[in-house]
Design brief:
Elements lengths: L6 E3 L5 H11 L6 E5 L3 H8 L5 E4 L2 H16 L15 E4 L2 E4 L2 E4 L5
Parallel strand pairs: 1-2, 2-3
Antiparallel strand pairs: 3-4, 5-6
């Protein structure tokens, strides 16, 4: 028999609201929750192990790089690169992942 898991994936910033509702309902078996943005409220639930993964899109960095590209183009006449521009994201987790010959904890100390 296959084991199944309850999983909630929230693609907006408010994953902490889902955690609050689950706490209010006093669910015994909390689902695995995945969310976006490392807000203080989300970080709190990550520390409490109620959120399992948070993908932080580094909004400040993405906005800053966009302004840099615009300034370089309009002020310095620097051509824009063709194709996609890849910017970093951070993944925070309460799970320790096993990688061959290593154990890596994703994210930084929280």
């Amino acid at each position: 028999m296959k084991q199944t898991y309850d999983i909630i994936v929230n693609v907006s910033y408010g994953v902490h609201i889902i955690c609050q509702v689950i706490d209010d309902l006093k669910w015994k078996d909390s689902p695995y929750i995945f969310g976006f943005d490392l807000l203080p409220e989300n970080k709190k639930y990550l520390k409490m192990r109620k959120i399992f993964y948070i993908v932080d899109q580094c909004a400040y960095l993405q906005g800053k790089e966009t302004i840099n590209y615009i300034c370089e183009y309009f002020i310095y006449n620097k051509s824009l690169s063709k194709g996609n521009v890849f910017l970093p994201i951070s993944i925070y987790s309460v799970i320790i992942l096993k990688v061959p010959k290593k154990i890596i904890r994703m994210g930084i100390a929280i």
